[in-house]
Amino acid sequence: MRTTLLSLALLLLIADLPAWAQTTRPAVEDFKPSSLNQGGKQYPQINSEGRARFRIMAPQAQSVKSSFSGPTQITKGDDGAWIITTRPLDEGFHYYTLNIDGADVPDPGTLFFYGAGRWGSAIEVPAKDQDFYQLKDVPHGQLRQDLYFSKSTNAVRRCFVYTPPDYEKDPSKRYPVLYLQHGAGEDETGWGNQGHAGLIIDNLLAEGKCKPFIIVMDNGGGIGGGARRGGPGRGAANRGTGQPGGAAGPGAGGPPRRGAAGRGGFAFNFNAFEHILIDELIPHIDSTYRTIADQPHRAMAGLSMGGMQTRTISLAHLDTFSQIGIFSGGSIAPSDVSDMTAYRQKVKLVFVSYGSREVDPANRRRGGPFGADPKANTDALKEAGINTHYYISPQTAHEWQSWRRSLHEFAPLLFQE
Amino acid sequence: MRTTLLSLALLLLIADLPAWAQTTRPAVEDFKPSSLNQGGKQYPQINSEGRARFRIMAPQAQSVKSSFSGPTQITKGDDGAWIITTRPLDEGFHYYTLNIDGADVPDPGTLFFYGAGRWGSAIEVPAKDQDFYQLKDVPHGQLRQDLYFSKSTNAVRRCFVYTPPDYEKDPSKRYPVLYLQHGAGEDETGWGNQGHAGLIIDNLLAEGKCKPFIIVMDNGGGIGGGARRGGPGRGAANRGTGQPGGAAGPGAGGPPRRGAAGRGGFAFNFNAFEHILIDELIPHIDSTYRTIADQPHRAMAGLSMGGMQTRTISLAHLDTFSQIGIFSGGSIAPSDVSDMTAYRQKVKLVFVSYGSREVDPANRRRGGPFGADPKANTDALKEAGINTHYYISPQTAHEWQSWRRSLHEFAPLLFQE
C-alpha cells in the first residue's frame, strides 16, 4: 500500500506539466541563487521567469536530469559541469531530485526537506507576496521540539510546538491552540520548515493582525509519515518538506475518495492519529503548556491529507474543536453535518481553501478539488448559518505556496471571541 | 581562506586511514540498517565489525565510490545496483558522501547533517556504550529554535536552547546555563542533532546523575559557519552535523596554532563571536529564560574549534564563566593564566578531554592534541590548585563519539556548588 501510494506520489510529482508552460523560448539570463541553497552555494538558481537552473560537476556522467518535466535545456561543459535549465515554475516552493546516470540523488547545493516520504532537495521561486513569510527584525516565537510518550503506539513521539513571542514574558498568561497538520508523504517538520508557520504568525502579530496562539504540529501518518516516529530515537530534529506529489494519497481526497481512504492503508493512520490526537497529544499539550484548555480555544487545520483528517476528526469531535481550516483537502457540505443545530452552536469558523490551479477547470492541474465543488459546499454551509470563509490562492496548484497563503488568511480569523 | 580551510577539512576527512584497519578479510554478513537512515530505507547498513555497506541504483554509472578510505569492495549488480563495503569504522558517527561518475552527492538513504561546511550523509556505528544517548521513556527536555536580533551583525541569528524536563513545571524555578559550542565546519545544529546533547542530559537527569541546567548552542563561525546566519531567513531549522574533517581549521588548534588562528579568517570569527556571546547572546538568554544570571552558574564548553574558543574566551572573561570544558580543542597550562590567585578563586572546574587516537602516540590518527601535552597541562593546573578533570574517550579519534562521551563525563561535574 505504502509503496503504491509513494509511487503514485512521485508519478504525480514528475507529471506536473502545465500547458501554459510549454515554452521553448530562451531563458532570461538573470539567474540568482535560490534562497533554499546551502550557505555559500551558488546553485541551484532561479531567474525572473521562475525557471530553475541546476549545475553539478559530473565529468564521467553520460546523463544528468532533474525531476522537473516540460521543456528543459541540458548542456555539459568541457569542465565536466552539467547545466540544466527548466521551464518557468509557479511562485513558491518546489521539491525535486537530480538523476545522474540512472541514480536519483539530492542536489548537494540545497538544504533538504521532507516530502513524498523522503528527504530531498527543493528550490524556492520568489513570490510577489513573499514578504508575509520573510524573516524580519520583529519579536519571534520559539519553535520547540517536544518529545512525549504515546501509550497507544508504545513509542516516544515527536511534535513541534510554536509558542508566540510573548509566551515567556508573562508566566500567568494562557493561550488558545491550533493543531496544524501536514499532508501525505510529509511529516511534523513541514509546517515549521518550508511552511514558514512561525514566521507567518510572527509577522502577523507584529502588525497586530492576529491573536497570539500556540501551534502544535504532530505526525499524522500517511506516506512515510509513520516512519518518522523513529526520528527522535536518533535524537534528530531534521526538518523536512512536503511537496505536491505528497498529496497523491487517498488522504488528499474529499467525499468521493473517503471510501478509498476508509479501505486503504490510510484507514489505520486516520484512526490511529485520531486516537493519538484526542487522547494523548491534546492532554500532553494542555498539561505541558499554558493553554486555555477548552473547545472555544482549540482549532484544527491541515493541508491535503491533513485537511481531510481535520474534516473527519472535527466533524466527529464537535466538543473538542470550534474552528476548522481545510487547505486543499476537501470541504464540508450541510449534508456532512449530522446535527446542524449543534454544529451551528459549537463551530465558530470553517475555512476552506485551494490553489487556483486545483479548482479552475480552464486552468486545472494535478489534483483538483476532489469531488463536490468546495465553493458550492462552503456557500451552502454559510446559508445554513455557519461562519464560513473560502479562499483561492492565485496562480498556484497543490503546493506549499497555496498553503502558506492559506495559513496567512486563516490565522487572523482565529480566536476572535 | 574559507575555501582553503574547507578543502583541508575535506582532505583530512578522506585521509582518515588508520593502519589497524588495513584488513582485506571478507566482511561478516550480519549487516543491519544504520540508525541514521531515512524512515523505511534499508541502506546504508553496518555490520558487527563496524563496516559500512552502501547500495544505490545507478544503472548507467561507470563508477560509484564512497568517501571512506581504505580497503573497499565495490560491485555492480545486473539490476544496476552498486554495492560498496568499507573497512571497519570507529564506533559512533561518521560523515560521508557518495561519488557517482565524478559527482559528489549525498546518499539518498540517510538523514542529512551539517559538517565540513555542508549538509550531507552520515552513518552510525553502534557503540558498546550507546545506551547513554538513546531515546528512552524518561522525562524529556525541549530543544527550542530561538531567533534573536544581533546588533553587531545587524542580522537575526539563530541559536538552539535545551530546557530541562522540569522547566515548564515550576514557573518560579531558575537554572544555571551551559554555553556549548560546535567545531569548525559545523554550526549551531550539531550538538542537538548528532551530538545528542538533549538525550544525554535527559538520561543523566533520569538517573539523578546531574543537576538540571539550560544549554545554549549558537553559531561560533568557522568554516561555513557564518553562512548559517542565513538559515533563519529561510525559516529553516535543518539540523546538521559536524564530522572529523570539520576540525581541520586553525580553530581546532591549541597554543602553537593560535598564531595562525589569530592571523587567519578565524580571527574575525573568534573576535566577532566573543563579542556576540558576551554582549548579545548572554543578555538575550538571561532576559528570555529563567536563568541564574551570575558567574557561578554559567559554564562554557566546546569541541575542537569550539574548545579553542572556550579556552580563549573563558581565560579573558573570568567574571563570566566559572566552569570550563575543552573537548579535543587544546588545554590550559598554568602559564596561560595571568593571575593564578584570581583564577583559583573564580574558576571552579576545568575539564579537558580527547579521543584516545588523538593523544596515543602509538595509535595516533588525524589531529592529535595540538601542541603541549594536555595531560601534563591539566596535571600542572591541578597542582596549582584548580579543580581539573582529564578524560580520554577509548578507541575514538577527533569525532563525535569522543564528544558525546565528553559531554556525558562533563555534565555530572557541573553546578555542584
Present the secondary structure layout.
The structure is a homodimer of 417-residue chains.
Chain A: H1 2-14, E1 32-33, E2 45-46, E3 51-57, E4 64-66, E5 73-76, E6 81-88, E7 92-96, E8 98-100, E9 103-105, E10 112-115, E11 118-125, E12 142-150, E13 155-163, E14 177-181, H2 197-206, E15 214-217, H3 255-263, H4 265-288, E16 298-303, H5 305-316, E17 323-327, H6 340-346, E18 349-355, H7 356-359, H8 374-383, E19 388-393, H9 400-410
Question: How would you briefly describe this protein structure?
Answer:
Chain A has 417 residues and is of the alpha/beta class. Helices cover 24% and strands 24% of the residues of chain A. In chain A, a hairpin with a 4-residue loop joins strand 5 and strand 6.
Describe this structure in words.
Two copies of one chain form a homodimer. Helix content of chain A is 24%, strand content 24%. In chain A, strands 12-13-15-14-16-17-18-19 form an eight-stranded mixed sheet, with helices on both faces. In chain A, strands 1-2-3-6-5 form a five-stranded antiparallel sheet, with no helix packed on it. In chain A, strand 16, helix 5 and strand 17 form a beta-alpha-beta unit. The first copy, chain A, has two domains: 23-126, Immunoglobulins (Immunoglobulin-like), CATH 2.60.40; 132-413, Alpha/Beta hydrolase fold, catalytic domain (Rossmann fold, 3-Layer(aba) Sandwich). Chain A has helices at residues 2-14, 197-206, 255-263, 265-288, 305-316, 340-346, 356-359, 374-383, 400-410, and strands at residues 32-33, 45-46, 51-57, 64-66, 73-76, 81-88, 92-96, 98-100, 103-105, 112-115, 118-125, 142-150, 155-163, 177-181, 214-217, 298-303, 323-327, 349-355, 388-393. Chain A has 417 residues and is an alpha/beta fold. The first copy, chain A, starts with a helix and ends in a 7-residue tail after the last helix. At the A-B interface, strand 9, strand 11 and strand 12 of A face strand 9, strand 11 and strand 12 of B.
